[in-house]
Design brief:
The protein has 161 residues and is α+β, with helices and mostly antiparallel strands.
């Protein structure tokens, strides 16, 4: 076996390996991944009972379509969380891979004291049957929580069984 035969065999092995890896990444492996970011919070004018808002960007950086089914406003208590009524725009919606959507959540601030923490929970479902609860927290007072303006990422710990 000469050097030409060896090089031809090496190139063939590399090509087969690359095609198998590409096939796996495109056809077999499916990854659910979302990045969220709090864009702004503040007062809403003339929205009835809903006088506060939180605006989020939600990006699907995975390779499966995801459904953003619901958005909840939660307040923590020692025994758990209470859910409060809120309004959101365009929810539920489908978020395709590499898409981004803006979600506006309005809620009644009378349920919260200025020092309270507000939790916004996104209910997310994937086509493979997985459900997720992605929660983000922020303070009623501007910059009252470290990292409230940082991105938050969907991962395995958010999966609901």
């Amino acid at each position: 076996m000469g050097i030409k035969d060896f090089l031809a065999l090496l190139v063939s092995v590399i090509a087969i390996t690359l095609s198998l890896v590409t096939f796996y990444l495109q056809r077999i492996r499916k990854k659910d991944k979302v990045i969220g970011h709090l864009i702004s919070t503040g007062d809403v004018k003339s929205q009835g009972n809903y006088d506060q808002y939180a605006e989020y960007s939600i990006s699907n950086i995975g390779d499966t379509q995801l459904v953003i089914k619901n958005v909840k406003v939660l307040k923590p208590y020692p025994w758990g969380f209470d859910e409060f009524t809120s309004q959101t725009n365009n929810v539920p919606f489908i978020l395709k891979p590499n898409e981004i959507s803006i979600v506006n959540v309005t809620y009644d601030s009378r349920h919260f004291k200025p020092e309270n923490i507000v939790h916004i929970e996104f209910g997310i479902f994937s086509p493979n049957g997985r459900g997720y609860k992605l929660r983000h927290s922020f303070g009623q007072l501007l910059d009252s929580i470290d990292g409230q303006w940082d991105i938050f990422i969907l991962n395995k710990e958010h999966e609901v069984s």
